[in-house]
């Protein structure tokens, strides 16, 4: 199998964005706040949103299954208060669940959390619980910067995050560290903020000792780890300067990287630097980069081409495309086994 561990519902029916617009407009008058029941999206609309888009590209590229979460830039945790985020997260998580029910062999749901700037992360636990127990989520997206580019939240190693980690460990569910829209004009959302966040989160984990408290917690750093593989020597040296163990001991038992790197030299570097067991196949399609690369004639996000041209052994290639994901996402593995896959 080829499992894409990083997919977002970027093609949701227009009615979803219209509901969100109403919710945001109602921040000035709570009496106008729409209820989740007011969003009426039938199964046919869901099919029409994914069949000519994600499913078509998955078929063209030979991807068997995608871990499917709400659109990252639409999480927008900086908007409104916790109640705003709670309603929006529940609605988006429901939609990903419904898509996975319509195509149970092609999509496995992942959930966003109802984070809000300055609000105790423990408030996310009820939706995390619902997503796993009722919606079958196999993973969650965890935003290390709910402020949208102002970085007002404590580092991921801070104890305020611990209630979320405790629940993730209890459910044996990984978290993908994924920010949302940047409202800071200094940081372009997908070109700077996303990659900055990947790098920042990794450095926070190097500085702290989170995995001593949560030895079975698993975190996925997307987009190939941001700048991490390119500056691996810097991080190794900083770990030494901080009195931390080697990175292989300190973080690589719990931290994984995906293959959302959109050119061959970048993918080659990722595999040269990061142990194969820590790399998961992903494309993030249909996402930030949708065009065709004029140098190759193929879509930038057709990452299977890069992975299969990286010179991996057959065993390592199978690990990256399937087996690592099954190990990091045990609930996904259980779902596949229930389907005799």
UniProtKB/TrEMBL annotation:
Gene3D superfamilies: Metal-dependent hydrolases. The keyword Cell wall biogenesis/degradation does not apply. It comes from Streptomyces hintoniae. Pfam families: Amidohydro_2. Residues 3-330 form the Amidohydrolase-related domain. The lineage of its organism: Bacteria, Bacillati, Actinomycetota, Actinomycetes, Kitasatosporales. This is Amidohydrolase family protein. PANTHER family: 2-AMINO-3-CARBOXYLMUCONATE-6-SEMIALDEHYDE DECARBOXYLASE, ISO-OROTATE DECARBOXYLASE (EUROFUNG). Keywords: Lyase. Signal peptide: none annotated. InterPro entries: ACMSD, Amidohydro-rel, Metal_Hydrolase. The keyword 4Fe-4S does not apply.
């Amino acid at each position: 199998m080829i499992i894409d561990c990083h997919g977002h519902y970027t093609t949701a029916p227009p009615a979803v964005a219209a509901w969100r617009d109403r919710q945001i407009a109602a921040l000035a008058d709570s009496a106008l706040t729409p209820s989740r029941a007011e969003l009426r999206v039938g199964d046919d609309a869901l099919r029409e949103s994914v069949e000519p888009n994600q499913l078509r590209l998955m078929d063209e590229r030979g991807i068997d299954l995608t871990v499917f979460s709400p659109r990252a830039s639409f999480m927008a945790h900086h908007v409104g208060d916790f109640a705003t985020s709670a309603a929006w997260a529940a609605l988006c998580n429901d939609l990903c669940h419904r898509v996975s029910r319509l195509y149970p062999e092609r999509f496995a749901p992942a959930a966003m959390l109802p984070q809000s700037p300055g609000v105790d992360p423990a408030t996310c636990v009820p939706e995390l619980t619902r997503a796993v127990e009722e919606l079958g989520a196999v993973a969650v997206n965890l935003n290390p910067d709910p402020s949208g580019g102002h970085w007002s939240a404590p580092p991921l190693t801070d104890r305020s995050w611990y209630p979320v980690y405790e629940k993730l460990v209890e459910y044996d569910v990984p978290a993908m560290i994924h920010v949302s829209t940047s409202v800071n004009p200094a940081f372009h959302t997908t070109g700077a903020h996303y990659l900055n966040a990947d790098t920042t989160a990794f450095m926070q984990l190097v500085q702290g000792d989170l995995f001593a408290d949560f030895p079975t917690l698993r975190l996925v750093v997307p987009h190939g780890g941001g700048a991490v593989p390119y500056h691996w020597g810097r991080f190794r040296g900083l770990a030494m300067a901080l009195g931390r163990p080697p990175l292989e001991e300190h973080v690589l038992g719990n931290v994984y990287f995906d293959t959302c790197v959109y050119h061959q030299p970048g993918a080659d570097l990722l595999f040269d630097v990061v142990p194969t067991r820590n790399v998961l196949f992903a494309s993030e399609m249909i996402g930030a980069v949708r065009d065709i690369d004029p140098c190759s004639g193929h879509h930038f996000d057709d990452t299977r081409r890069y992975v299969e041209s990286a010179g991996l052994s057959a065993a390592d290639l199978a690990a990256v495309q399937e087996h690592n994901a099954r190990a990091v996402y045990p609930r996904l593995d259980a779902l596949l086994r229930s389907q005799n896959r």
